[in-house]
Specification:
Strand order of the largest sheet: 3-2-1-4-6-5
Number of helices: 7
CATH architecture: Alpha-Beta Complex
Distance between the termini: 15 Å
Shape: globular
Largest sheet: 6 strands, mixed
CATH superfamily: Spore Coat Polysaccharide Biosynthesis Protein SpsA, Chain A
CATH topology: Spore Coat Polysaccharide Biosynthesis Protein SpsA, Chain A
Strand content: 15-25%
Length: 176
């Protein structure tokens, strides 16, 4: 699998600045979900988040104001759902391998408060996920569980980077 053309320097510069305020809330959005994005951002402001990174998957979101405490990185994307997850994994791996802690949040996972203290309360945990339902089917068939990727935290480091790199082997789908 080829690595997408990530704006590595732009992303790492923004993340290095944002992490000064704690682990980075990381969200991805495209134009069809603009109303969800606005709702998520409003709740983020109320929760006191001041270091969100928004990955804009199209020109509409890239031009949309995300307000103070949020930095937009334009990463144009066209592709299917599986390709989107592979793109996300490349971003996650880049951050983890550059020692940047983050919480990935789908924009329909609305934060009613700042959850970062709970996500990073146990220093022995590099990754915190909730249990998903059944997708992807191959992983569920292989392991009888899946990780919910709509909201999870990553404490950056070699173990997290290695885990996130498993997408290259197909292990995330139960193939490795």
């Amino acid at each position: 699998m080829s690595t997408p053309d990530l704006p590595r320097d732009t992303l790492l510069t923004a993340a290095s600045t944002a992490r000064q305020h704690g682990p980075i809330p990381l969200i991805f959005a495209s134009a069809p979900a603009l109303y969800l994005l606005d709702n998520w951002l409003e709740h983020a402001r109320r929760a006191g988040l001041s270091n969100t990174i928004l990955i804009a998957l199209d020109d509409t979101v890239a031009a949309h104001p995300c307000g103070p405490g949020c930095t937009t990185i334009h990463l144009p994307f066209t592709g299917d759902f599986n390709a989107l997850w592979l793109l996300r994994l490349h971003v996650f791996e880049l951050l983890a391998n550059n020692n940047i802690d983050f919480i990935h949040s789908d924009i329909d996972a609305v934060w009613l408060g700042d959850i970062r203290p709970e996500c990073y309360a146990d220093p022995s945990l590099d990754l915190t996920f909730s249990q998903g339902l059944f997708f992807p089917l191959q992983a569920h068939a292989a392991w009888n569980f899946v990780l919910c990727c709509g909201l999870f935290s990553v404490r950056a480091g070699p173990a997290s980077g290695q885990f996130l790199a498993l997408h290259q082997s197909g292990a995330w789908l139960g193939a490795g």
